[in-house]
Amino acid sequence: MTIDIFMVLIIVGCMMVCLMKEITRPDFIVFCTLAVMLLLGIITPAEAVKGFSNEGMLTVALLFIIAGAVQQSGILTKFVKSALGHGKKPRFSIIRMMIPVSGLSGFLNNTPIVVMFTPLVRNWCKERNISPSKFLIPLSYATIFGGTITLIGTSTNLLVHGLMIDNGYTGFSMFQLAVVGIPAALLGILFMSTIGYRLLPERKSSEDIFKNTREYLSELVVENTSPIVGKTIMDAGLRQLNGLYLIEIIRKDGEKVAPVTSHHKIKEGDRLIFTGLISTIVELQNIKGVRVDTGSTIELEELKNGNQVLLEAVVSHQSTLINKSIRQNKFRSRFGGGVIAVHRNKKHTTKKVGDVKLEPGDTLLILAGRDFISRWSSSKDFYIITPVDSPEVMNRKQTFIAILTLVTMVLLATFEILTMFKAAVFAVLTLFLTKTITFDTVRKYVQFNILLVIASAIGIGIAIEKTGTAAFIAEHLVRITQSLGILGILVILYFVTTLFTEIVTNNAAVVIMFPIATATAVHLAIDPMSFFIVITIAASASFATPIGYQTNLIVYGPGGYRFTDYLKVGIPLNLLYLFVTVTICFFIL
């Protein structure tokens, strides 16, 4: 082992530990890893920035724009809603939901599909008295299934495609992965509608838990003789309370004031609505002329006024809010909305809302202005999972152009009239020229954090290959599995890739494994295509944890799931995908 190999192993190991512990955003961790390798001279500046011109990475950026144009048309929501049916046979409804969702995610970005359909599926379940926990994990898994069918199904597929081209290989065709993806998806859907349905729990969703306002809301009624009448919130001593947070004032005449600032004045008959630790409200009983109602009967709908809405948002993996309290994040001033409650692990947090340190997957109940959704629907800090009453959609002409452009792009790439990258450039150019999208809307669709992970990870992959680390690992891998042959190597490649995906990120996992797979194939003097397909499918097939794939995280809180729910359903599904992928790659490819 050379000093360079040793250094690369240590740096990559530290990166994986940081990703597992989620000490900060994944894109920042991966970028810092690349920077360290550059500063230590392991890679040159040209090699460090090579990922930013990688064809796969640039294609992903273009596809974000194309998918965004199709998703804003509004036609997808109608399509899936009709597919769910009447719900008389829930297991059959799961099949009816998962098949079209898998088909859509083969061509569109998975994350917005799950964000868009989570409130739709949850409301559909509510109307039929079905627990949403029976449907939301299948919704997430369906998008993962679909992502393994086409070249453009996930950013991971395109990343491997770009790496193959950079290393002198042909790259995947549009439906080359479907040889494995379609059989695996069909078996996965069958599993989820039978065994998986029995394994999935029946739990209350975050929406149901938030409705029990007695657990986190209380009222302070200001009587006529109270000395605080006419005083500001600050002067009355209601701003920095121990364990409580004032979220709204309901006036005697029905006027509702939210968010409440320090300068709002108190009037007689005001109902002051607090959220937080109900047990600490006793300190307010020392204020003369007020009546404390510890068992508030206020309904969430009462908090709304003409300009205020209630919504739920799930904290994302790459959020800048993570590991900081709501107060430290200055959530109200930063986003223009007040957090009423935080749902984590099937229950409300027991701290004062402002003191809660946020974690990925936390579901926030937010009282905000009506423009909150339009302003923050594309935020990288959280996913808004509350349905929009009147969504902004394209007109029929724009909808037709968006869908026709997507179909044309797929056909051009499928029949190899244009490369995937050129077909995507043509599609984006068409959308701009027809004014279906504008430069202002493009910023909402492009997920720059994912692009940074991909570009930085490519540079790390170059370091792994350049220093001989990949060849070093491949040599030991072949030696260990010598008695098992190629079949054993395929199993180990799949297992290690899917393990990395569950504990770090799918793109980071595949970049680490690509040079190892290549070096292994070279060592064995065989065509590496089956190895590439194995690591590509394994990197996307993340079912066993809510943190392995962002769609799993989105449904975590809304479904009221526990971490172990994913293990019960996901591990058998992971094994099913391993069996199907390795079998097909070994015997057919």
UniProtKB/TrEMBL annotation:
It comes from the Bacteria. The keyword Magnesium does not apply. It is a multi-pass membrane protein. Keywords: Membrane, Repeat, Transmembrane, Transmembrane helix, Transport. The chain crosses the membrane at residues 6-23, 28-46, 58-80, 135-154, 174-197, 400-433, 445-464, 476-496, 508-526, 531-549, 569-588. It comes from Evansella vedderi. It is found in: Membrane. Residues 204-290, 298-382 form the RCK C-terminal domain. SUPFAM superfamilies: TrkA C-terminal domain-like. This is Di/tricarboxylate transporter. Pfam families: CitMHS (PF03600), TrkA_C (PF02080). Its main location: membrane.
